[in-house]
């Protein structure tokens, strides 16, 4: 292939687009973008809770499969099946308790930034209530009891500030808002 001295064209970035009539689509797109911003600021994702939930889910599936394919037929395996049903219910209740107590509205858990003296990561959570355009983003410490934990910071803004009429996310404006909130959280630490 002959080179004619022309500069290489940069890869075209496709704009992120959401259906403005679907609040779940809007929230999903904003949440994904927040994850990119937080990771860009040096925070690594903490997947321990997600991995724990996957492990419990796998155990639930294993119990269900064991109950289904146990070698004995029904009258002989009644106690075994009752034990499987009990275990299945208990494990699902544990999953629900984890979701309601640990996850709540969290979209991202992080580790502290590399090279930081901070001993706690962040919990990023968001809300977009039904029939509302007000998006609330909250940043809190992953360990509120830690000495290096800060007070949570949040903002509530209309999603119309970040989308065009066609549903394209104006990423630059949204990134600045999220970065400012992260900086506000970190500056709270410095002012202690």
UniProtKB/TrEMBL annotation:
<feature type="transmembrane region" description="Helical">
    <location>
        <begin position="49"/>
        <end position="68"/>
    </location>
</feature>
<keyword id="KW-1133">Transmembrane helix</keyword>
<dbReference type="GO" id="GO:0008233">
    <property type="term" value="F:peptidase activity"/>
</dbReference>
<keyword id="KW-0256">Endoplasmic reticulum</keyword>
<dbReference type="GO" id="GO:0006465">
    <property type="term" value="P:signal peptide processing"/>
</dbReference>
<dbReference type="Pfam" id="PF06703">
    <property type="entry name" value="SPC25"/>
</dbReference>
<feature type="transmembrane region" description="Helical">
    <location>
        <begin position="80"/>
        <end position="100"/>
    </location>
</feature>
<dbReference type="GO" id="GO:0005787">
    <property type="term" value="C:signal peptidase complex"/>
</dbReference>
<keyword id="KW-0472">Membrane</keyword>
<comment type="function">
    <text>Component of the signal peptidase complex (SPC) which catalyzes the cleavage of N-terminal signal sequences from nascent proteins as they are translocated into the lumen of the endoplasmic reticulum. Enhances the enzymatic activity of SPC and facilitates the interactions between different components of the translocation site.</text>
</comment>
<comment type="similarity">
    <text>Belongs to the SPCS2 family.</text>
</comment>
<protein>
    <recommendedName>
        <fullName>Signal peptidase complex subunit 2</fullName>
    </recommendedName>
</protein>
<dbReference type="GO" id="GO:0045047">
    <property type="term" value="P:protein targeting to ER"/>
</dbReference>
<keyword id="KW-0812">Transmembrane</keyword>
<dbReference type="InterPro" id="IPR009582">
    <property type="entry name" value="Spc2/SPCS2"/>
</dbReference>
